[in-house]
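Changelog-linked ticket: flavin-adenine dinucleotide example.
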Amino acid sequence: MDKRNLNIAVIGAGVIGSSVAKELQKELRNSNITVIADAFHEDTASCVAAGIFRPGPSFKGPTREITKQWIDYSWNYWSKIMNSSDAAQAGIMPLPVYIFSKTNYHVTRNHLIEDLVPVYRECDVDELKMCGKGWKYGSYYLTLKIECDKYLPWNEVLFKQNGGKILKQKVESFSSLKDYNLVFNCTGMGSKYLCNDHDLVPIRGQVIKVNAPWLKTSFYGDYDTYVIPGMDGNATLGGCRQYDSYNMEVDKYDSASIWERCCDLVPSLKKAKVIGHKVGLRPHRVPVRVEREVMHGLSVVHCYGHGGYGVMVAPGTAKTAVQIAVDALKRNSQSKL
Ligand SMILES: Cc1cc2nc3c(=O)[nH]c(=O)nc-3n(C[C@H](O)[C@H](O)[C@H](O)COP(=O)(O)OP(=O)(O)OC[C@H]3O[C@@H](n4cnc5c(N)ncnc54)[C@H](O)[C@@H]3O)c2cc1C
């Protein structure tokens, strides 16, 4: 296997492209890696996310085992940074969470992480009264949070220090990438057009960013209501999940609903200063697509369709995507795959 002088393109600079580029620099050290994207940092869906490590039960890889491997690997990856001196710069912080429901016990459980996080337990009677009346079920757990507005620039600096290149450009077709030996497709919702993938559906989300430095704990209620504190005293209030909606405009009715539901859950938020409103499209696909395909004679490894869980699980899927390429390289002695 000759790994030298490989020209590799990673299309997409959200959390998935960024994670794949980092993993590539580890596994294929002598190759030339270029990240190509038409949007960076705060203009990506990744920067709309609060970035909580909490998979929904609907999150699915190709098998249950692989799904769990992705989640477990990612937890260890993020924990390692969180426990290092880089944590603040990389935007990783620990997060205690209460999740309540008035109607359904299962909403408060999470079979994908209960055995992974250091604490996951049912709430006692007093805790069920913390956020007003009527909460019948509740769990408390300790997780972590990744803030992409810090993580993406931090990762980009390391990528460039290790010789990586960055190109701002829209890719119209994989056929325009003939100069590369290997391409990673990490375009999130962009794959709808690049791959004509009918299984990829947007789930629209809207959030309110506020300044509320007194908040140290995250609270979830019914109907996608969540309050997630972050670094710098800021917090994310959500939310909504609108299937098959491409609307990127801030909707004033969604804002009003989010504000009312979050203030009902955590009344001290009425004193919080609103910083802004954000909209993003979750690239939803079942299963998440991590596989190799030869397109226009070019070896393309896809890594997209992470829905509402791409930030937390990015390191795990990036590792698999790069491993798929390394295995293909091993099968083929020529540097052109
Ligand atoms: C409101 C909301 C809340 C969320 N909360 C969480 C959470 O708490 N935890 C969590 O884990 N996840 C959360 N998510 C989901 C998470 O944001 C996504 O799963 C993740 O950002 C997907 O990352 P990505 O890199 O695939 O996509 P993106 O961040 O959208 O990046 C795609 C990249 O591809 C580029 N691109 C696309 N098409 C082309 C093209 N043709 N040519 C060149 N470049 C192209 C774009 O410019 C961009 O750089 C949330 C999402 C939303 C909307």
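Closing comment: Example verified and attached. The chain has one domain: 7-331. The chain is about 25% helix and 30% strand.
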